[in-house]
Amino acid sequence: MDYVHLRRQAASLRKGLFDQGYLDEQFYQLEDLQDDASPNFVEEVVTLFFRDSARLMANIDQALDKCVKDFNKLDVYMQQLKGSCTSIGASRMKTECTAFRECCRDENIEGCMRSFQKIKREHSVLRQKLESYFQLLRQAGPVECATRPNK
Amino acid sequence: MVSQEERELHVLAVDDSPVDRALISKLLRSSKFRVTSVDSAQRALELLDLESNVNMIFTDYSMPEMTGYDLLKRVKGSSELKKIPVVIMSSENVPNRICSCLEEGAEDFLIKPVRRDDVSRLCNRVLKC
After folding, report:
1. What is the structure's pLDDT at A1?
2. Which of A68, A122, B106, B125 is deepest in the core (most CB within 10 A)?
3. Count of CB pairs separated by less than 8 Å, A with B
4. What is the number of alpha carbons within 13 Å of residue A122 lying toward its C-beta?
5. Which residues does this entry mark as bearing 4-aspartylphosphate (chain B) (predicted)?
C-alpha cells in the first residue's frame, strides 16, 4: 500500500477543511493535545462531538415539531450545540448556530427552521469529510498524523 | 513513602458537555494533574463529600439543574471546601455573570474554548506549580 500517497491525500483533505472554512484554529488546539498518552485524541473528541451533536439536533427537531414553540428551550439547545462546535473548531456549523439563535431572539420560527436545515447540512458534510480524513489516517498508519499547513 | 498519585495535584472537572469534559480533562492531564471529571454539579458535590484531596475545581457555568455558579456558592459556603480554588468556564462572555462569579470567590472566569496557556497560567498562580 502506498502510505505516502495516503498521507498526502489525508493532508490535502485536511487542508481543504480549513481552506473551505469547515474548521478553524481550534482544531489545531485539539491536534496539539494529541500525544503518546492519547494517540487518537482528535478522532475520539470528534466522535464524541458527532454523537452529542446528533442528540442535541434530535432534541431541537422535537422542539421544532411542537405546535407551541418554546424559543427559550430552542435557544438553550442551540447554545449547547454551538458550544460543542466551538470546542472542536467546527466553524461553519458554529456560524449557522449563531444565526439560529438570532432567529430565536426574534421569535422567527421560519428563520429557525431554515437555519436548522443549514445546520443539518453542514453537520452531514463535516461528518463525511472528517470520517474520510480519519479513515485515510488509519490506512496511512501511525506515523505523525497531522502537521499544520504552511501559512 | 508518598505515591505518585498523592504527589500529583488533583483537579475536579465539571461539565455537562462530553466534548468539553474530554477537552478540559486532557488539557489538565497534559499539565500533569490527576483529573476526575463529572457531568454535573450534583455529582461534583457528591465526590467532594467523599474525597478530601481535591486541589482545584474547573467547572462549566451553564449546566442544567445546578449551575457552576451554584456549585461555586456551595463550595465557598462550606467550611471544609471553601479553600478549594474554583475556576468557572463559559462559552458566553456575559459581564454580569463574570462579576458575580468573581465576587462569589471564583479564582478566574475563562471563556471557552479553554487553552493550554489558560490552564498553565492559572495553575502557576493558584497552586504555585
Report:
1. 65
2. B106
3. 49
4. 24
5. 60
